[in-house]
Every structure is written in C-alpha cells, then in structure tokens.
Amino acid sequence: MSGQPDGRAGADQAGLVEAMNSGVVAVNAAGRITAWNPRARQLLGYTREEALGSPLSRFLHRAAEGDLPPGQDRRILRALRTGVPEHADGDPFTHRDGRPVMLSWSSAPIYADDPAAASPEAGTGTVAGAVIVLQDAAGRHRIERERHDRMAQVRRANSRLELVAEITTVLSSTLDEDEVLQRLVRLVVPALGDWAEVDLLVPDGRIERAAATHRELSPADVARLEGPLPPLPWTPRGPLARVLRGGTTLVVSADAARAYPDEPLTAAQHELFQTMDAHTAIITPLAARGETYGALTLGYSRPGHGYGPDDRLVVEDVARRTGLVLANARLFAAQRDTAEAMQRSLLTPLPQPDDLQLQARYVPATHVGWVGGDWYDAFPLAGGATGLAIGDIVGHDLHAAARMAQVRNMLRALAWAPDASPNAVLERLDAVMDAVSDAELATAVFARVQKTPGGHWRLHWCNAGHPPPLLITQDGGTAFLDEHGMLLGNPDLTGDRPDGTRELPPLSTLLLYTDGLIETRGTDLTDSLTGLRRHSSHLARLPLPDLCDQLLERMEPNGEDDVAILALRVPG
Question: Among 410-419, 467-476, 548-557, which stretch is predicted with the lowest mean pLDDT?
C-alpha cells in the first residue's frame, strides 16, 4: 500500500474495509489510529469515534505486554519501525470490559513511496503507517484445546493400559506369593500413588501386611511396617475391615480410620496412614473366583491428588488381575504340596544295617507338574546283605510318582531271592514291567552291599541306563563306577547290563543320585560330572548328613527336575 487513496477507488476500498469480516485497524507513522472498522469494534468493544486519533496501545495490546515499559516496541507495531510484516496465530488481548479475547493478527507496513521501490525485507522505503488485520481465534483455540484434551485423555488411557499390561506380565511370571506382592507395590508406585501396601488374608485365618512401599521412605522404614496385624472383626466398621470382609472398593480420606479406635485392625490402619502421611487413599479387594485374598491400599501423601472414577477403574483392574495371580499361586502351592507329600510318602525310611550309615535327600522340582519320577530305596536282603536302589521313571507328574511306586515295589520283591545277582534282578524287572506297570522307560541302579568273611565291605551292582555311582574315599579320591547297561522298559533296545564288583575302602562313601543333580540346561554333562567329583572330593571327610547337604548346595540344581540322593558310608 502507498499513500492515501482518493476519488472513487478510495471510496470503494473504504467500503470494502467496512464490510470485511475481519477487524481492520490502520495507524499512521506515530502509531495513532487512522481506521477502525465495525468488526474491530465487535472484537475489542471500542467504537470508531473512541479509537480514531488515539494511540493504538490504548486499545490494542497483547495481554502479555500490558506492563511493557514506555518506549519499548510492541510486537504488533514493530512493522512501523522495521518495515517487516508480523503475525501471530493466537494472542490474548484485553477487551474493553476487561475480559481476555483470543485473536489472530497480521500487520503490514504502509509505504509513502512507490511500492515498486520499497523492499520490506530489506527495510527500505518510507513507512507512513501500518494496517493490522484481526480475526477471532477463540473458536479455533477451543477446538484445538478440546483436541489436545482428547489426545491427553487417550495418552493417559494408553499409559494406564500399558501399566496394567506390564503389571500383568510381571506378576504372571512368578507363582511365589510373597514375590507377587512385593512386585505389585513396586509397580504401582509412583504410577498410581505415593505409597502402597497389601494386607493379606493368610489361609490359617491371620492377617498380615505382606508388602509395603513409599516413594520417599527408605526400605528399612517400610520393612518395619510389614508383619502380623490384628484379627478381622466379625462385624467390620473400618474401611479395611469392610473390604476384607468382601466389600467393594473404597476411596477414603486420611481420617477415615480415626473414627473406630476400638477396632484393633482399623487402629492399625490409622497408624499406617499417619506413617505414610496419607492425604487420600483407595482400598480395593484382591479377589478371584469368589474368594477374597486380601486388599491393596494405594494413597497420596501430597494434597491436590486423589482418585477419580477413571483412577478407580484402573486400580480395580490391577487388583482383579493380582487376585487371579494369587489364586493361581495358591492353587500351585496346594498341588505342589499334594504331589510332594505323595512322593515323600512313597520314599520309605532308611534302615541302618550293621555299622553302615545311610543318608538320603529328595528335592522336588520347582514346577508342580514335574514332581514324581525320581526315587531311592534301601532295604535288608536275605543273607545279611543290604539292597540299594535309585532310579528315574520317565515323566514328571503324579502318574510318574504312581508308576515309580509300582517299579520300586517290584524291584524289592525280585531282589529278595538270595541267589539273584543285580543283573538278574534288573533283567526280571525289565521283563515284568509291561505286565504289571504302565511305566514306559526307566533308569535304575540296583546294588548289594555285604560284609565279606574277611571283614571287608563289597559292592555288587548293575546299572540300567542311570548316571554312574560315585565312590569317594576318605582321602578325597573319586571314581565313577562306569559299568553301564541298557534302560528298562524298551523291548526294541538290546544289549547287556553287566554286573560290577568293587571293594569299598574303610570310611569311603558311595553316592547314588538322579540326573537332576547333574543335568542343567545349557551346561555340558561332562563338565557337570567333573564338578560333582571335585565337590565330592572336598567334602569327603564331612559327616554323611553334612556331605549330602553341602553337595546339594554346591551343585546348585536348577529346579527343572527332581533330585534324589542316596549315600552310604562304610565304617572304619
């Protein structure tokens, strides 16, 4: 733009400006208003008569520049000095009535010279004024705010879904109840609160604070909060007692437990709230399949934080998933206890014949479904000998335990014949397994230990596909008894099962064991057998019970299979 329009063209331009749907304001080189159209009045509240001739800064300045020192450029007038257009997508301005209005604006210089000679980018030419175009940005900003709010809600929802998924994954990776609860409180703080704790209903009727954490308290301070709690009242009044009695989720203030000082459990909860500096809390049951296992309590210590409907849904979802994990953990424990009890009931007490010492150890697999295949046995035989047996039935379940009992009992019966060599006993056992047991494959070692007329102890044994027995002398020497034969139970396999004979030196130890002691995934079997010899050599002089315990500790079986050990110590 250059100069002032005159004649009919100027009248047409003035009419166009008046009719525009945007506010149009013009100023001269001194920053005084020379034009103010009706839309500018609608946007800012000032009439044309009030505005004309007045400094622009009286009527049009950004709210952020309200306290700008005199003489300092306002951005909207900067085009007067620089000759460079300015614009903003949305700035807060002040309406005549004092309320803020959100406007988008652009300003452009008006040149007095020939516009062809002017170069705004270079700042050349004489600036005679500026024209400012205003548009209402409130609607657009409202839409953008709503969109931003919706996106924020989506992000929060996705974040919480990711949190719930992470919690589910982490908790489902273990079936140890204590570990589940410790992981839970660490995962929900600080994502869902400043502190968290779990009160557990123990199967024997007690209540125990099983896990707790606080974003600012030390682990030692928090550990002191854990432990037994007062019993659950029959008629609960306090919030925790109500939830544990089958109630629903409660959102409570820090004073919610103060009202029932005569209820010991609620008094204990109030003491916890004081320690945690609780401001607000949410208590939700850990329940699954119609049974309540405990309660999760989450809280904020900072004012201004609380639990709304969306927060409640997330906390309840976490608690529901935790309840399922606890239900599975207790089912696992019950099944494991049943399987282990059955297995141990089938492992008979050891005799202590003559001066021989016998010790055995049995460690069930950590997986409940894998208990059952390994076994050991020791029993007196005709003629004063002692029979030793160890074996492993293919399979890791209760059926394997039952098959193990069948095979063990058959071996006992077949071994009673006084003239039966170990080889003959295993051959007969192999022949009758199909008829009296559904065991498919088995490994076993059967041995006779007997005192000779000269006062020495002699071992006579046969190995059917089992790891080799280890002989450990008092001075730490070790030797595997390598005579080895075919497995039991497979008619397609042919081959001999040779007998072996060995004098047992005084104070030596004979070690029979199952493969769970030496077979670890990712470890070479030869290395494991070498490790067994090395550890056994170091432990050779220990009392027999200590040798067995130390050997289990040093070999570190991984829990993927049962481990059975049968050890015999020869007298001096």
Answer: 410-419
Cα–Cα distance measured from residue 336 to residue 322, given in angstroms and rounded to the nearest whole number: 21
> Of 259, 252, 260, 296, whose CA–CA distance to 278 is shortest?
252
Contact in structure between 323 and 293 (CB atoms under 8 Å): yes
45-100 residue pLDDT tens: 999 999 999 998 888 766 655 555 554 557 888 888 888 999 888 888 888 888 88
- Tell me the C-alpha to C-alpha distance, in Å, between residue 479 and each of 277, 376, 471, 511: 66, 21, 5, 10
CA-nearest of 41, 48, 20 to 97 is 41
Q: What are phi and psi of 197, to 5 degrees?
A: -155, 155
pTM above 0.70, yes or no: no
Q: Is the four-CA dihedral 399, 396, 376, 498 of positive or negative sign?
A: positive
User: What is the C-alpha separation between 198 and 471, in angstroms, rounded?
Assistant: 52
| 12 token code pair | 């047409």
Q: How confident is the model at residue 395 (pLDDT cuts 50, 70, 90)?
A: low
Distance set, CA 22 to CA 37, 43, 58, 80, 135 (Å): 9, 9, 20, 21, 5
Angle at 459 between CA 453 and CA 462, to 5 degrees: 140
3-class SS of residue 245: coil
Q: State mean pLDDT over 489-511.
A: 87
DSSP 251: E
